[in-house]
Amino acid sequence: MTLDTVNFARQLRIHALRMVHRAKASHIGSCLSMADLLAVLYGGLLRVDPADPAWNGRDRFLLSKGHAAAIYYAALAERGFFPLDWLESYCRDGAVLAGHVTSKGVPGVEASTGSLGHGLPIACGMALGLRAEDKGRPDPRRVIAVLSDGELDEGSNWEAFLFAGHHKLSGLTAIIDYNKIQSFGRTSEVLDLEPLRDKLAACRWTVRAIDGHDHDAISRSLLAPPEGDRPTVIIAHTVKGKGVSFMENDLLWHYRSPRDDEFAKALAELGA
Amino acid sequence: MRSVVAEGLVALAEADERVWLLTGDLGFSVMEPFAARFPDRFINVGIAEQNMAGIAAGLAMTGRKVFCWSIVNFAVIRCLEQIRNDIVAHGADVTVIGIGGGFAYGSHGYTHHGVEDLAMTRVLPGITVAVPADPAEAAWVLAALGRQGGPAYLRLNKGGEPTLHETSLDAVPFGPMLCLRPGRDGAFLATGPVTGEALAAASLLAGQGIDMGVWSVPVIQPLDRETLTRLAKDLPLLVTVEEHVLSGGLGGAVAEAVAELPGPRAQVLRAGMDPAQPSRNGGQEDLRRTYRLDSTGLAERVLSARNR
């Protein structure tokens, strides 16, 4: 199944805005920056079966930046993993969908995340386990993890980058949603990651840098086969708050929830 | 008990191809047989415990039964959040094995004393926390955890522990406390190899006409409340014994449970490491003496409690 991913991304952005506004929740900027990545992944690239979320032949997807839960839930609901009306309960008392990604009771979510620096080590373990089963198979299952840039401050990621390179986990792909802003400011000011490409390449990963809002580029980078036995990391250059003019590239929207007038304006911009 | 468990892991891996073993670059001279026999299921992840715990969780999510191996503080405290979020919250079939529990690495100094791990792990919902007292218990606990699956934490000493159980534990159910010596005047509830000191203390006290029982508590979580309730109702005094800080470990667990019992019940004394006491460098035996966890110290605690 392949969707019109551009329209899908727009739908995801609208869902995320509605959810975050309704719940007065944070992280709309973090959601919007990865809308296009999710749209391509869940628009047909990931091998998953919404009717059978535990299907063993599926690719494994981990959203390590678990604070961007709203738009991830939206992607899963749009794909039919659970009813769309669940999205209305996001962050509500007693609801299944918590503010950070939870796998408990949520079909399609592999693991609960929210504390940063956890997704890539889990992904390494999954890639090891799947590799042991898929040896020699023509179409091995993939493990894809999306990380934030600020998250790379956590040392556990670098343990995992070293590990995956050393152990040649070519079935593993990490995508870094490099929107350049973390909670207190720009990543370059808080704890500079540059030269990021060199650091990742030095860990023996294949590094691909793309415009994280260009669907063709996202798709091409994800569909390109691994180079030799190296894991792949895609540095997706993105804009925090992408798609809503006044949220773009503004630290404010890491935490601020839109007021009613801002919400209406944002929806209008997205053509909702 | 370290080598007993290493051998037990080989047996488990032989019987079950889902068994994987990860180490954080520790276990030199005990891991080699496993590594040689099952090279595809053995990974030295390097000195990177956070990653090890996450990898273990991820492997378990693909259907593996995973054991992780390191020294207590690195295996548990360094990566406690990974154990909490990635392993325990997902109910992952992972058993974290910590070597050097208590004062086993006494002379190495404070960084290597594993004395807060029981408090930190036993509060995690759904975890099993096991602490064998001797090599026989170690083999039996590992086999039980292999059957039962994780999430679990297995705290070991290191090597050279005396055998306390004369008979095989093969047929003994896993979970309840194990009676090593019955007694009418009270009981030591001990966990880990320091249980040997409790047995020796009971012998010293017997010479003075005081009949103290000794129970090994190999499973701290879930605690055997049934036996504990019976002992607390039948006996006037329970003394918990552990190489652990006073709060939160076995003593904490027993005190919590006994405090909630209605009606007359045993007094609970906790023997353990008192962090208020000035610290001291020393080996395992020296530190046991320092914190009155040796047989003499334990016997004195009982005598002074009875004379109060």
UniProtKB/TrEMBL annotation, chain A:
Domain of life: Bacteria
Pfam families with a match to the protein in the record: Transketolase_N
Signal sequence region: none
Transketolase N-terminal domain residues: 9-271
Record-linked SUPFAM superfamilies: Thiamin diphosphate-binding fold (THDP-binding)
Protein name in the entry: Transketolase
Provenance organism: Gluconacetobacter johannae
Organism taxonomic ancestry: Bacteria, Pseudomonadati, Pseudomonadota, Alphaproteobacteria, Acetobacterales
TrEMBL record, chain B:
Similarity remark: Belongs to the transketolase family.
Alphabetical keyword list: Thiamine pyrophosphate
Cross-referenced SMART domains: Transket_pyr (SM00861)
Transketolase-like pyrimidine-binding domain residues: 1-163
Lineage: Bacteria, Pseudomonadati, Pseudomonadota, Alphaproteobacteria, Acetobacterales
Pfam family, one: Transketolase_C
Cofactor(s) needed for function: thiamine diphosphate
Domain of life: Bacteria
Protein name: Transketolase
InterPro entries: PDH/Transketolase, THDP-binding, Transketo_C/PFOR_II, Transketolase-like_Pyr-bd, Transketolase_C
Coiled-coil stretches: none
Species for this entry: Gluconacetobacter johannae
